[in-house]
Amino acid sequence: MARPDKVDAVVEMREKFRNSNGAVITAYTGLTVAQLQQLRRSLGENAQYRVAKNTLTKIAANEAGINTIDDLFTGSSAVAFVTGDPVEAAKGLRDFAKDNPNLVIKGGVLDGKALSADEIKKLADLESREVLLSKLAGAFKAKQSQAASVFQALPSKLVRTVDALRAKQDEQGGAE
After folding, report:
1. What cellular-component terms does GO give this entry (predicted)?
2. Residue 149 and residue 175: Cα distance in Å, rounded?
3. Are 64 and 14 in contact (CB under 8 A)?
4. The model's pTM
């Protein structure tokens, strides 16, 4: 029979898996409590970092319908549950791991798809959602400006062409 505290931990983590965009599994052996607190602060509101037992985390993930990351739950494991922008959370973990080599990104899951450690690092190399949206908006604005200038140029070109034809016709009419 399962102990109530373990059942509660599984239920809590299952809900975190269900309510998050993704989760990143890390190894944290060798990090101090102060470093773990610093990591939690660096992730901000986009992610919650939780140290948990592998067996309980695997059960919670499976109950949440995520069974593609079972092999990541070996050794010391902690999970960063991503609720905000996954790029920002991946950047936070990558940057912290650069300064603290004891933090190792094992892999994770994003919107139900398993990600390797390399894929999470590639995700961290992307620009944030806000930057990408502003670039897209800028591209749309530039295209609209180009279209507007083309549409403004058409009437003026037409007027110049008609004037040139009129002048040529006047020359031909005056020469006869």
Report:
1. ribonucleoprotein complex; ribosome
2. 39
3. yes
4. 0.69
